[in-house]
Amino acid sequence: MDEEPGRDRDAEGRARSGRPRDGLGRPLAYGAEGVARQPEGVVRTPEGTVREAQRLLDAGMPFHAHEVFEDAWKARPADERELWQGLAQLAVGLTHAARGNATGGARLLLRGAGRVEGYVRDGAETYGVDVAGLVAWACELAARVGAGTGAGAVDPVAEAPRLRGVSG
User: Fold this and answer.
1) Is residue 40 within 8 Å of 68, Cβ to Cβ?
2) Residue 27's beta-bridge partner residues?
3) How many CB atoms lie within 10 A of CB 17?
4) Residue 21, beta-bridge partner list
5) pTM for the whole structure
6) What's the gap between Cα 95 and its chain centre?
7) What is the pLDDT along the chain (168 residues), one digit of tens a residue?
8) Helix ranges, 29-125 (H)
């Protein structure tokens, strides 16, 4: 099968969209002013990951925070995968809720909450992440957006969770 002409590819030949994106990761038209993408494959300490993700969440950019967590799950030891994947799913759940996708947002919030909650059952290291607080936040937001009690999309800044609790 022939390739589509002009399809964006990375240096290894994998399909990659070169279109600019908005703060929620939605593609914009070529040539439009977009939000700078997160560089891929950045290796951070767990504390650096949490700090950078919180900065992005506070800025209303949960899609970008998800990319930071994705880098962590790829770079950290396999036994931490559930933590980082769960945190990424929470960020993507907020992304979908902010885009107005209530069903997808609620599902991802609950899936992410289940992952991070399951990860800590055996006393695993959480690097200061307030797992109980995040699970409560995710369940409350999922119930609210899933029930359609808001007026469409949620405000990602107003709904951003505190990864390390109130003082974090």
Assistant:
1) no
2) 21
3) 11
4) 27, 35
5) 0.84
6) 7
7) 444 445 566 567 665 667 888 888 888 888 888 888 777 888 999 999 999 999 999 999 999 999 999 999 999 999 999 999 999 999 999 999 999 999 999 999 999 999 999 999 878 999 999 999 999 999 999 999 987 765 578 999 999 999 997 644
8) 46-58, 62-75, 81-99, 102-120
